[in-house]
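Hey L., structure's done. Input below.
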Amino acid sequence: MAIVDLLEKEAYADEVAALDKRVRQYTQAPEMTPYVKAAAHYPPLLAQMGTEHLTVMLTDELRRELKETLAVAVSMTNNCSYCIGAHVTVLKEMFHASDPELVGLAGVVSHVNGINAFEEAVLGDSPAMPFPKESADEVPLLGEIEARLGRLPDYYRVMANDEAYLETIWNRERVTVLEGELDRRTAEYVALAVSITNDADYSTRTRRETLEELGETDEQLFEALQAIEIFQKNNAWTSGLQLDAGPSGE
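Output:
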């Protein structure tokens, strides 16, 4: 239950109605959402939030569908039910996202969350759980991974202390990121968004390098970072106010 009153739209001032109309030109929500009703208690903030969305989501290098996908990825990582529901609705209604695609998206998000947790424990200058890094000479599967990715991430080298486990996680990378329901470029952007959200520096660098090799520019990557930032903020906003999932859009 929301921690602030969410009134019917008729109870708000004309200024709020005008701002709501502006926001819904972007979200295509059929009615005033809980997100807007909450922000309407402080119209300058509602106006700012509308400007943020119009500035970040509708412009420049990256298509809107990808930005909405990043919004879902960040929200899944933060377990923000309101934002997951809102942006999944946009993906379904505006871009005809299918159930297999949404399951594939959740697959990438969950896979990379696992990788991030593992790397946090075993990598860095002073890892909390140090284990040796194996080489491709010792573990042939590492050579296969390096050939497929064009690099050999250190977390796979540590995973190779248990070859069966390494094979399991590598297969998960293949079925989610490399050969999943999302195209490779989108999947790598999702992996980048999850890694940034989790403060996973190693994976953030690795995924950025991969995207650069796939042809993404600094301008595109910076635009993705803007979308990731705005939805990290929105997750905190909606979760902090305890908003329940509403109609499409935020």
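The domain at 9-240 is CATH 1.20.1290.10 (AhpD-like). The mean pLDDT is 93.

-- N.
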